[in-house]
Amino acid sequence: MAHVEDDFEKLKAEVRLLRDRQEILDVIVRESRGRDRHDAELTASCYWPEGADEHGPVPFPATEYPEKANLGHAAAFAMNQHNLANHTCEIDGDTAFCETYVVGTMLSHDGLTCTLAAGRYMDQMERRNGEWRILWRRTTVETAMQGDASWLHSPPVKGFLKGTRDRSDLSYARPYEIGGPGARW
Hints:
Layout (H helix, E strand, L loop, with lengths): L1 H35 L3 H5 L2 E8 L4 E3 L3 H12 L2 E14 L2 E13 L5 E16 L2 E9 L3 E6 L37
Parallel strand pairs: 1-6
Antiparallel strand pairs: 1-2, 3-4, 4-5, 5-6, 5-7
């Protein structure tokens, strides 16, 4: 009987670890979605209020970061998208240390140039009352390139749906409506 109880406790611990890892990754993905949609409320929900995000030379308090990020992206680019890749996560009780690779794409205001920048997020996350959020984020930029984005204005793209930086974006609609309204190229 003790063997069954030991197996059950081991299984519970493994499930808890898997659940924690998924919840942590969900926060990181949700934070990127919030920034791409310029949804400050969604972005803010990913940080503990006393936290900070170091995007560039100066860390921003978590309470200010969502709006500052939106203003910065809007001033510099017509659209932006954060694509997440490799992800590692070390969990120690209610603290987690994560590294997530990111490739950001940023479209110029005239729509003719796209910048791709690759870097990483190093997040220290905490679980409080069963909820994981980012406490500290440090961001690197490790490589970048710019290229011609005029293809977006060519006949093969005409009529394709495109994202918007607000809650009118298609991803907020429920249910999804085939052939329904949406911003298009």
